[in-house]
Amino acid sequence: xxxxxxxxxxxxxxxxxxxxxxxxxxxxxxxxxxxxxxxxxxxxxxxxxxxxxxxxxxxxxxxxxxxxxxxxxxxxxxxxxxxxxxxxxxxxxxxxxxxxxxxxxxxxxxxxxxxxxxxxxxxxxxxxxxxxxxxxxxxxxxxxxxxxxxxxxxxxxxxxxxxxxxxxxxxxxxxxxxxxxxxxxxxxxxxxxxxxxxxxxxxxxxxxxxxxxxxxxxxxxxxxxxxxxxxxxxxxxxxxxxxxxxxxxxxxxxxxxxxxxxxxxxxxxxxxxxxxxxxxxxxxxxxxxxxxxxxxxxxxxxxxxxxxxxxxxxxxxxxxxxxxxxxxxxxxxxxxxxxxxx
Length: 342
What we know:
Layout: H1 4-16, E1 20-25, H2 28-41, E2 45-49, H3 60-66, E3 70-74, H4 81-86, E4 91-94, E5 106-108, H5 121-129, H6 133-142, H7 150-156, H8 168-173, H9 176-187, H10 192-202, H11 209-212, H12 217-242, E6 249-255, H13 262-272, E7 277-284, E8 287-294, H14 299-306, E9 312-316, E10 320-326, H15 330-340
Parallel strand pairs: 1-2, 1-3, 3-4, 4-5, 6-7
Antiparallel strand pairs: 7-8, 8-10, 9-10
Helix pairs in contact: 1-5, 2-5, 2-6, 5-6, 6-9, 9-12, 14-15
């Protein structure tokens, strides 16, 4: 857990800042965390961090360009020590993945105190701000956690969720809040400029119906932007579901494009095929970038074995991981999964 004292520390850093710069992951958990803090602060700038091995020193350029008095990092599982060493203002880093051992930041991760705490970054940002309940719920459910304040949410938005639902997968793919999660997922996919433009449009959205029912011009814009991305997504989902699995392993690869569908679509396939271990891999610049998911099989121990002796890296949660592997090592990497699943 992140303690009340630590929540107070984070608020103190935020309240004292005059020009904060927030780096956030490009998934709904990272996005909602950013929106919650920006709505609270009413000042500052944001930078979307596209998926990579770590947040590298390349992002120091943004720090130098914008001259913040505080850097905040949200839902990024690893940050390079080089970046940290080159930033000369306080860094507040809030995350929920396997704890990092980096030095030189104010680092807040619930797993330090409670290793099996799965509450995502959005949950903790809502605890900090206590505002925009719908964003707190959306970001938490998107990362497969139904928060304790779901009853309060249902009172305000009774048509978006059913209290009978206890399974995060069902919450993501059979509810109206799940429809909104899908839109948020694709709202920050595309170029870096499109991503931050859409994130800042979302800052002006006051309630979920603006998007779901297209009740405002900004809501219509976000809805239509996501729908354009979803046309390819729907056809790709059909191809994956038509792919023949090899025993318990369902493997699907696809070429690179302007949008990565890997993480979200692997979650969707996992929900539809709960007995399988799912690997969705995108080929990009000589590497396969992939998501590994299962509802019933612990994927992280297998991934750790598969990465031994190959040009690649990866990690994540027990049942959901990400990895990147050199194309030349991919068959060997997949071979480990096949052996482990026999």
